[in-house]
Amino acid sequence: MKCGRCGKDNDKVIDSRTSKDGFSIRRRRECLECGNRFTTYEQLEQTTILIAKQNGIREPFDRGKLLNGFLKACEKRPVGLHVIEQAVDEIVSALRNESVREIPTTAIGAMVMEKLKEIDHVAYVRFASVYRQFEDVGAFLEEIRSLDPEATEKHRSETMQAELFSEA
After folding, report:
1. What one-character DSSP code corresponds to residue 24?
2. Nearest CA to 120 among 86, 67, 83?
3. Tens-place pLDDT, residues 105-143
4. What per-residue confidence (pLDDT) applies to 65?
5. Residue 76 burial class via C-beta count within 10 angstroms: exposed 0-12, middle 13-18, buried 19 and up
6. Under 8 Å CB-to-CB from 124, ≥6 apart: which residues?
7. Helix/strand/coil for 11
8. Which residues have C-beta within 8 Å of that of residue 131, sequence separation ≥ 6?
9. What is residue 155's predicted lDDT score, i.e. its pLDDT?
10. Could you give the CA distance from residue 6 to residue 34 in angstroms, rounded to a whole number?
11. What three-state secondary structure class fits 75?
């Protein structure tokens, strides 16, 4: 690190500690040439993840937008904020661990749907209705039935019985 006074890069670290936010290290240094003391900060460099939208536009990933999507889906549902934030953190962590620089919105949408399916079925259906852009009620009902395989089997059995008795 170059000294701000003499410009030499010959220094030693006097003190090192984690900053208040926990995301950087504060280092006190002393220039061995002129004796000047100065402070530097070391931070983890995170790569920017770009989101590839369906219309071809690319924009930086925004955790806030992801959180807002969860909040809208879970609005007026008995889901705690800590549960939502944990789900968002897990998705962000998964994105960072994949070491990709660009990810399509469809992949993020699928991750959100998986988390919502675990958290709250109503929130899942709300999100799915917007994300999948259902064209008709049939597609919407099929998605709801997919949440409960037993109900789907019961519905099939009732439908078959109704067809049998209507033919007679």
Report:
1. E
2. 83
3. 999 999 999 999 999 988 988 888 777 666 666 666 776
4. 94
5. exposed
6. 73, 113, 116, 117, 147
7. strand
8. 109, 112, 113
9. 45
10. 7
11. coil
